[in-house]
Hints:
The complex is a heterodimer.
Chain A: E1 2-13, E2 16-27, E3 30-35, H1 41-48, E4 56-61, H2 70-75, E5 77-80, H3 92-102, H4 107-120, H5 136-148, E6 154-158, H6 166-181, E7 186-190, H7 194-200, E8 203-208, E9 211-217, H8 218-222, E10 223-232, H9 236-245, E11 249-253, E12 257-261, H10 267-284, E13 288-295, H11 298-305
Parallel strand pairs in A: 3-7, 3-8, 5-6, 6-7
Antiparallel strand pairs in A: 1-2, 1-4, 8-9, 10-12, 10-13, 11-12
Helix pairs in contact in A: 3-4, 3-5, 4-5, 9-10
Chain B: H1 29-42, H2 49-76, H3 85-88, H4 93-113, H5 116-121, H6 127-159, H7 167-198, H8 202-225, H9 238-248, H10 266-290
Helix pairs in contact in B: 1-6, 2-4, 2-6, 4-6, 4-7, 4-8, 6-7, 7-8, 7-9, 7-10, 9-10
Amino acid sequence: xxxxxxxxxxxxxxxxxxxxxxxxxxxxxxxxxxxxxxxxxxxxxxxxxxxxxxxxxxxxxxxxxxxxxxxxxxxxxxxxxxxxxxxxxxxxxxxxxxxxxxxxxxxxxxxxxxxxxxxxxxxxxxxxxxxxxxxxxxxxxxxxxxxxxxxxxxxxxxxxxxxxxxxxxxxxxxxxxxxxxxxxxxxxxxxxxxxxxxxxxxxxxxxxxxxxxxxxxxxxxxxxxxxxxxxxxxxxxxxxxxxxxxxxxxxxxxxxxxxxxxxxxxxxxxxxxxxxxxxxxxxxxxxxxxxxxxxxxxxxxxxxxxxxxxxxxxxxx
Amino acid sequence: xxxxxxxxxxxxxxxxxxxxxxxxxxxxxxxxxxxxxxxxxxxxxxxxxxxxxxxxxxxxxxxxxxxxxxxxxxxxxxxxxxxxxxxxxxxxxxxxxxxxxxxxxxxxxxxxxxxxxxxxxxxxxxxxxxxxxxxxxxxxxxxxxxxxxxxxxxxxxxxxxxxxxxxxxxxxxxxxxxxxxxxxxxxxxxxxxxxxxxxxxxxxxxxxxxxxxxxxxxxxxxxxxxxxxxxxxxxxxxxxxxxxxxxxxxxxxxxxxxxxxxxxxxxxxxxxxxxxxxxxxxxxxxxxxxxxxxx
Lengths: 317, 295
C-alpha cells in the first residue's frame, strides 16, 4: 500500500524554489527522509501534513489530497517536531491526552491511551511529572508518545534521536522499529544520522536541492551494482587467482576475504559470477564461510546522490 | 475462604499499548477540544499557582463590588426600596482589562514559546480554527465575567422587591444584560488576541495590551475634557467604546458627562465597535496565517 505519493510537486517561496518537481512514492514500514540542510525535507513534510499548499504537481497522503483535506489528513497522522520545547508546567500524561483528544479520541479513551502510550515509551512511572523537569531523552519520548497515542496510520518523526546519548539512541530506534513491526504504524523519519536510518529504515528517500536524488529499499540501494564478497576460512589469495583465471576481476583482502566484480550488472553476469565462485571453491576444496552481494553503506549512497564521490580517496592521484 | 459470587464472571483485560479500535470523532471536534481545554487553562486548571492567581484576581476584581451590593441588598432591603437603576449598568471594566492584559498573552504567547503551537498545527486544527478556539475561550470568560454579576444582582433585587416588576421585564433585563456583556467582551478580546499575534514574547504582549487599552482612554479623555475636542474622537478608544455600548444596552438615560461618549450617537458607537472588532480580528487572522512555526 502506498502511504505518500507525489508527482511533479513544486513549492516556491518567493523566488526560491524549495521543491522542484518531487516524484516520490512512500510505502509501508519505516522510511527515512534524507537530505542536506536546505534540500527540502521540511518543506516536503509541511506539504505532507497539509500545512502549506504546493504550487504545482499532485500529492496524495493515505489516499487523500492534503491541500484539499488537510485537517482530515492530519487526523490520521502523528507528528513529533524536531525542537524540544514543550509546555513545562504540563504533565506528560496531560499533554499526550490533550493531543489525542485533538485527533478525535473521546476524553476517556484519550486519557487511557495516554497512559498506555507513556508506558510503551518507557515513561510510565514519570507520566505525572511536569515536562519541565524532564531530561532531553524523556522529552523525546514524550514527543513520540503524543505523536502515536491516537494510533495514526503514519507518524512523522523529525530528528527523533537528536540530543540523545548512544544508549538512549539505541532505545529510541528500537522503539521506532517496534511501532512499525508490532503495532503496524508506518513511520517517516527525517534525520541526518545515516547510520541510524540504515539501522531502522526499510526504505529511504534522498533529497538534493529540492529533487529526489535517490529513493528505494535500503537493501537495494546499499547493494553494489555487481559483485560478491566471498569469505573463506583460509587461502583467499588462491581463490582470487583461480577467479582471475576464470576471467573475473577478483581481489583478496587478507587471508579470508575475496571481492569479486561481475562483468556487468545484469542478472546473468551476476549469476555467472556466483557459479564461478562455487566452482573455484569446489576445485580448491576450500571451506566457505559466506557469499554476499557487494554492500555499500547508506552514507556512501547518500554521498553519491549529493553529487559527491563515494570514496574521496578514489579521486586522489 | 472467600465465597465471592462474581468470580465466574471476572475477566482480566490485557492492558498496554495496542492498536486503537475505539470511536473517533470528526476533525471538527478539535475546535471544541481546544476551546474547553483553553477555558480551563485560562482559569489556571492544572497550572502553576501564578496562572491560577491571574484568573482568580481578575474575577475577584470584577465581582467584589456586586458581591458587596448583593450583601447590602439582602441586609438592608427592609429599610426602603433599593434603586435598581444604579446597579443595572454595572459592568466590570477593571476585571475585563486585567484579564485581557494578563491572561490572554499567557494563553497565546505561551503556545508559541512552549512549542505547543507546532503540535496544534500538526493536528486537525487549522490556523484559523486554532485562533477562533483560543479567541472564543477568552471571549467566553469575559462574557461570563460581565454577565454573571448583573444576573445575580437582578435576581437578588427582584427577590427583595426592587428589581424588574414582571417576568417579561426580567427577561428583557436578562437579554439587555447579555447584549451588554457581549459588547463589553468583544472588542477587548479582539484587541488582546491581535496584539498577542503581533508580539512574540508574553511579557511584551502584556505591556503592549495594557498600553493599548489604557493610553487611548487617557488621551481621548484629555482631548475631550481639556481641549474641547468633539466627542467623536472617542471612536479611537476601543475600551471606552465597548463600555459605552455595554451601558447603552440597558437603555438608561444618558448623563452626558464630559469625558464620556454619552453624547455620541448610538449608531456610531455600534459601528465603531464592529469596525474595531473586524479590524483587530482581521489583523490576528492575517498574522496567524503567516506565522512561522518552529518545527
